[in-house]
Structure formats: structure tokens, C-alpha cells
Amino acid sequence: MMTGREFPNWEALYQEKPVETMPWFNPSLDADVEEALLNLELRNGSVLDLGTGPGTQAFALAQRGFQVMATDLSETAIRQAAAKANQKGLEISFQQDDILNSRLEKSFDLILDRGCFHVLPPQSRGTYVQTVANLLKPKYYLLLKCFSHLETGEQGPYRFTPEEIQQIFTERFYLRSAKQTVYHGTLDPLPKALLCILEKQS
């Protein structure tokens, strides 16, 4: 397992850079996320956008009729995304929160993680799994997007195989599918990613 990866101070990053310049900025809903929603026949319900960052995925989900709560470790990211949602006339509940020490008490039909899990330290993954499972209704879904082991670049998040995802989440989740895809954003070429549909066990 790769160790010793370094990640930015997320609050400082959002204070210093326009969100449109960030590697993970995609103004639209990721195509693979949209496909997963169609496959799961999810057209409405409550969604937690975990690590919302620029907020673009939360905007798109709200526009499709979902009730969206969006959280991020960065207070600045939350403030900026909330202002943009307000400009768009979207009702989204934004909250600063740390998933490893979460204050959330709601339960959701869907949790979208488009880049939080794969930057967490390996020793924190068990805490993440338990917390996310506790925030999901039984038999509902975590859409987890993370870097794939096929991504050969040295920088950035931890990489995973489908088997590793299954092993990490096995206590609380069933891995319905793991699709090789790309991480939509501003990088060229787009990094290789996995989109995993994880179903919470009853």
C-alpha cells in the first residue's frame, strides 16, 4: 500500500484559488454518476454530497429534483458554493463538516463521494465506512468515485482496485459494481478512476 501521500490544506486552497482552476472542477454532473442514477432508478430522494468542493454536483442533483445536503471540510468552499446555489435559485443545505468527526444526524437515500474517501489516511478508512453507513438508510447507496489503480501518475490521491474497495467496505456494504472511468475535471489527460456502487447492508 502506498503511504506518505501529502494533500493540501483544503481551507487554504479554497481561499487562494478560483474553484474553476481546481483539478476536480466539472461544471456538469459527471456522466458516470448520471448513468449510475439511471441504473439504480433514482430520480428523487435525499442526497448527501460529501466533500462538495465547488458544489457543481450538488447543483446538478438539486436541479434534477433531489433534496440535497452538501458538506465539505472547508468553510470557504461551503460559503462559496452556497452563494452560487443562491444565485441559481437552488435550495441546498450546505454545512461545514468533517466526515471523520461528523456532526450530521440525518439519514439519506444516497451519498455521493466524488473525491473525499481517496484522500483520507489509510488508518481512517474504517471510521469513514462506519460513519457513512450510519448516515445511509438500509439497502440504499453510496456512490463512491476514487482514483483507480490504473492511474499511473505519482501525484494525488490513493489508488484502489475493485477488490480493495470490497475489502475495505465489506463489513457494512455490498459492492454492486465497480466501473473503470475517468475523473472529470480540468486535468489533461483525465485521471483514471473507479465509480463504485455500494449498497448498505440491512
Give me some keywords for this one:
202 residues; alpha/beta; Rossmann fold; 8-stranded mixed sheet; 28% helix
Written description of the protein model:
- The structure is a single chain.
- It is built from 6 helices and 8 strands.
- The protein has helices at residues 10-16, 31-39, 56-63, 75-87, 125-135, 162-169; strands at residues 46-50, 67-72, 92-96, 108-113, 136-148, 159-160, 173-182, 192-200.
- Strands 1, 2, 3, 4, 5, 6, 7 and 8 form an 8-stranded mixed β-sheet that branches.
- α5 links the parallel β4 (108-113) and β5.
CA radius of gyration: 16 Å
Going by CATH, what is the homologous superfamily? Vaccinia Virus protein VP39
CATH A-level architecture: 3-Layer(aba) Sandwich
**Strand-residue fraction?**
25-35%
Tell me roughly what share of residues is in helical segments. Answer: 25-40%
The helix/strand class is alpha/beta
What is the makeup of the main sheet?
A: 8 strands, mixed
Low-confidence stretches: none
Terminal-residue CA separation: 31 Å
CATH class: Alpha Beta
Report the average pLDDT across residues.
95
Overall number of domains: 1
The overall strand count is 8
The run of helices and strands is HHEHEHEEHEEHEE
User: What is the fold-level CATH name, i.e. the topology?
Assistant: Rossmann fold
Q: Outline, from the CA principal axes? A: globular
Number of distinct helices: 6
Helices and strands in order, then pairings?
Elements: H1 10-16, H2 31-39, E1 46-50, H3 56-63, E2 67-72, H4 75-87, E3 92-96, E4 108-113, H5 125-135, E5 136-148, E6 159-160, H6 162-169, E7 173-182, E8 192-200
